[in-house]
Amino acid sequence: NNLQIPMVLVDKNIDISNAKGLVMVDNKNGTYECTKHLINEGHEKILYLSGPLKNEISKERLNGYIRALEKNNIQYDECDIVEGQYKYEWAYEFIKNIDEIKHSAICCANDLIAIGVIQALRERGINVPQDISVVGFDDIQTAKLIHPSLTTVRQPAYEMGEKASDLLINYLKNNNRESVGTITFKPQLIVRNSTKHREKNCESKI
Fold first, then answer.
1. What percent of the chain has pLDDT over 90?
2. Phi/psi of residue 118, each to 5°?
3. Poorest-confidence range of 52-66, 161-175, 181-195?
């Protein structure tokens, strides 16, 4: 940025010289909470569909999933984690074409992935949540409108934007021109209809 206009970043931790502050959600805690929710519902084989892992936010969300499994002494391996894209189309094609999933739940790194998963499962005759539970992350508007409505992690987007504006205004008023640092918001687990308690003797239908 040649103009060097000061800015406060929201939910994107990128290294640019004119970024004077960062407002973000606790991504690791978000996926920790939704994975813990699945574990509390009786799920132990949980597939994780990630965004690109070169992205710091993707790494944080993956770490939350891993932390929840490890804290509950649940084993996992590389087959339980799939790196992909934050896109409906990627998730839909992945689930539509995969031969077998030996998981009773799928934890998705964002809501677009989760919605793609639900649609592909539906077309394969797999019921959500009766056969497989699905969770997302972000709580986009569509999350509560799809069927079944999506269990997800809500980012307080309005509050984050408001805080970023306040930080930028304060920075511009500050004669010392000191960076304003990082503000981290706590995410909120929103439980809807895409998750269900799993009985121990149930098997995945995929």
1. 73
2. -60, -45
3. 161-175
